UniProtKB/TrEMBL annotation:
GO molecular function, one term: endonuclease activity
Naturally occurring in which organism (per UniProt): Streptomyces olivaceiscleroticus
Keyword field: Endonuclease, Hydrolase, Nuclease
Descriptive protein name: Uma2 family endonuclease
Domain Putative restriction endonuclease: 14-177
Claim: Hydrolase is one of the keywords in the record: yes
Keyword Nuclease: yes
């Protein structure tokens, strides 16, 4: 059974795409982006974030595609947080409207996507909170209060916290401990956010 009718030919092509083992693919504003598997530092950060979000109140999903078809996008964030048991009972795509927070962990090849295009896509999808965890710069960037539409969408509130300091995730009622987040060694710094 289909998740919803496919109206854009690129979406139909993307959904039939066979991705090689060890890679993941995302559709971001009409562009298909393929990535190799993540670094161990990346996976450990995702695990440490996931373990701090109370499962009695929230579902934390990995490898979950998000339905942002108004943006011709089907991103697969590193972590998706939503009210426990919110959304459909089954299906590959989770509607953006039920998501409370999305988490992306930056890699050396994803800096521009995570800070740029995904920031705009998630804001356009009205996702209340977008957390960028950046092991290159040793910081977390929490974005809240989405506004606008299309490529002009953005978050109006940005809070940058260095690794080691807590990140208040007020929407979840959690203070995220970042003291165990590792940095990626030997990667050149960038100038984002």
């Amino acid at each position: 059974m289909e998740d919803r009718p496919i109206t854009h030919p690129l979406v139909a092509f993307f959904e039939e795409l066979e991705v090689p083992e060890g890679f993941k693919a995302e559709l971001l504003r009409g562009e298909i982006v393929m990535m190799a598997g993540p670094d161990l530092v990346h996976n450990r950060i995702v695990l440490r974030v996931l373990r701090q979000i109370p499962e009695q109140r929230w579902d934390c999903l990995q490898t979950q595609d998000i339905d942002l078809l108004s943006e011709t996008s089907e991103p697969q964030p590193d972590l998706v947080v939503l009210d426990r048991d919110a959304g459909p009972e089954s299906g590959r795509l989770l509607p953006a409207g039920v998501v409370m927070m999305l988490v992306e962990v930056v890699s050396k090849s994803s800096v521009e996507r995570d800070y740029g295009v995904k920031r705009s896509i998630y804001a356009a999808g009205k996702v209340p909170a977008y957390l960028i965890v950046d092991p290159i710069m040793g910081q977390c960037v929490l974005l809240t209060e989405p506004t606008g539409s299309g490529e002009d969408a953005d978050y109006t509130v940005q809070r940058i916290t260095k690794f080691g300091d807590p990140v208040p995730l007020n929407l979840l009622g959690v203070e995220l401990d970042t003291s165990e987040f590792q940095r990626l060694p030997g990667v050149r710094p960038h100038s984002r956010p």
